[in-house]
Structure formats: structure tokens, C-alpha cells
């Protein structure tokens, strides 16, 4: 075995001993998983998949997801695409979960029924604990879903701020105020509504607020006030998707987060027209709010060089590898190699599965890939002689455990 492979394997073994913090999921209460039937589609379609890009029609996608169609029929829909997607990293997480949780090395005509049965048999209360705690050694997972309702101490919520900042009509504004039983006659009132919502979330255990790295237009208090008034007076029925009001309220979120000691978590990159999610949109915001801590997700893929420089230049920014390891292990390894050059080791968060309840199985696949990736990058440093193995293990431990605990003030 080559020296680098030995070192890499040894690092992976060390990391498998770590208890870890999962830095981003979309896991609601466990009943959202166990109340639904599961089968092979949960592994190979739910979560993330490349089937439509490989050519599956929207009609067949809908049928694949609709379990009123017989499993045999859905398997025949899926089968032609298997060899087109199997080498991608979304599928790799599925294959690892298939092996580690259900004991199958591959999926084929002979075993898809047995796989589906094994998955359904395991789909019972306790499945989160089995996968996340027993199989993955995850102490807790930061999770963003629709509500703060989480069961037990395994999940810790973050809340999405778009329902407050992204209001586009007077009806939505009135509705938000009504939910908090507060009056709303002007923009000042609405800011108070938003802060009251955040305080309520914090009391319910929320540790962070989630936003997106959109190209927010230039704004000012006057411009936001005027947009707000245009809705209140009926001069305008609906604001554009990205309005000066939205920009202004995002600034307020950053202030409110600092006042209440909450982290602002930020989606960047990857999805759809990813130009509209470029991490560089965050530069003016993070520079205006030095007392707000920003946890910037997904390595900014594909802009991982840019995000590295944001991490390097702003002390209030952390870089979070949630989702990245399954989007592309190759890109993520390159990102981490650069980040080691550029960013202090206390500013990087190693892992977030980014799965919903329907695909919680794949957390183990994603985590396995994260360990492999991190081991590959650190092993190179060890072999080139710029780091000892012990130092590498300490860095990996910071990324998987100390850094998220410190950033989010977790009591674990
Ligand atoms: Zn996510």
C-alpha cells in the first residue's frame, strides 16, 4: 500500500471514533418519516438524485414518487437510469447507506423487492436514533424545517427567515403580525413583529436563522419605508421577489441575530440558476455586521475559491461543508485543500447531511464520504511533511465537533 493510502486509512479509522455534530439537516419530527411507506425510491430518488438530468420525464418522475403505482412498475421506470447515475456522488451516498444499513452491495432485478422490504421493516419509531446516533455517532443535528418542533435532544432547530423578510403583499404582513398578536401600522411595527418572532423561536430552542445569498438590491430605511407604505395604502398590490423591503429586512435580521446571540446561516450556490445564489452577494452584508456570526453553507459551490476569501477576510464568517461532499467530492477536496491554506482551522465545519426525513438513511453515506474526503486532504499534508498525523486528527476533530459547538454555543 502506498504511504498516502495508509495514512488516509488511518485517519478515517480515527475519525470513525469521533462523536460529531451534524451541521445541517432538514429533519422534522420522526413521525414525518415513519408515518410514510418507504422503498428503494427513498434511497435513489429522495434527497438528491440525477434522474431528470439523465433524461427521466416529469411524468415518470411523478409516477416513481407515487406509491399507488406497483413497486414492480416503478422499478421498471427506474432501471434504465441506474447505470447512468450510479457513478455520481448523490448515488454513492445511497449505495453506502444500502450496504451499511440494509446489507446489500448493489440494487438489481433480483433484490429491489427485498431491499424495499428491509427498508420498510426498519421504518419504525427509533429509526432516527438508530441511523444518526448508533450508526453515525452523531450527538445532535442542526436542522431547518417548517417548525421548531423536534423530538428529544437529537435535533436542534434553525428557522428560515424568508416568511418574515420576503413578504410581498399587505395580507402577508398582516398575517405575520396576527401570528404574534401584535399591531402593524408601519415599518417600525413590522420590525418589532420580526424581532418578537425571533425571541419566540429562541425560547423554543432555536440557535440560528437561515437566509439565502440572493442579489439583494441596494436599500435604505427611506426606500424600505416607502415600499412598505405602498403596500399598506394599496398603491401597490405586490412587491417583486427581491425588493428593497426584503433587503432592508435582511439587514434587520443580521442586527436581531447579533442582539439575541443567534447565528445567521446562509445558503449559497448549487441550485438551479446558481448565479442568483453566489456567495459574493454576502460580502456587503457580512462587512456591515461585524458583530453577527455568519455560517456560510455548501462551500459556495461552484465558487469555493470566492468563499475561501470571504472566510479569510471576515472574522465573523464560518465555512460550512453541508451538502458539499455529495455534490462533488472532487470539488470539495479541492476546496478544503485551499481552505487549509487560507482559513484558520477554527472556522470550518466538516459536515451536514442536508437530507429530509424521507432520505435520512443517506446521512450515513454522506458522512462516510465526508470522512474519506477530509482524510484525503489531510493525508496529503502529512505525506508532504507539513503536518503530523496527530495534528491532522486534531484539525478533523475541530471541524466535526469543537467548531460547531463553539459557533452555535451548543450545550452537549
Ligand atoms: Zn439545506
3D architecture notes:
The protein is of the alpha/beta class. It has two domains: 38-122; 127-408, Alpha-Beta Barrel (TIM Barrel). The protein is built from 20 helices and eight strands. The chain has helices at residues 3-16, 31-34, 40-44, 51-54, 58-65, 71-85, 89-102, 112-122, 127-135, 162-165, 170-179, 187-203, 221-232, 244-259, 283-288, 304-313, 324-327, 329-342, 363-384, 389-408, and strands at residues 20-25, 138-144, 155-160, 208-212, 263-267, 294-297, 317-320, 348-349. Strands 1-2-3-4-5-6-7-8 form an eight-stranded parallel sheet, sandwiched between helices. Helix 16 (304-313) links the parallel strand 6 (294-297) and strand 7 (317-320). The longest helix is centred in the C-terminal third of the chain and has 22 residues, at 363-384. The radius of gyration is 22 Å and the shape is globular. The two termini are 39 Å apart. The mean pLDDT is 97. Bound molecules: zinc ion (ZN). Zinc ion (ZN) binds next to loops.
Provide keyphrases for this structure.
412 residues; alpha/beta; TIM Barrel; eight-stranded parallel β-sheet; 20 helices; binds zinc ion
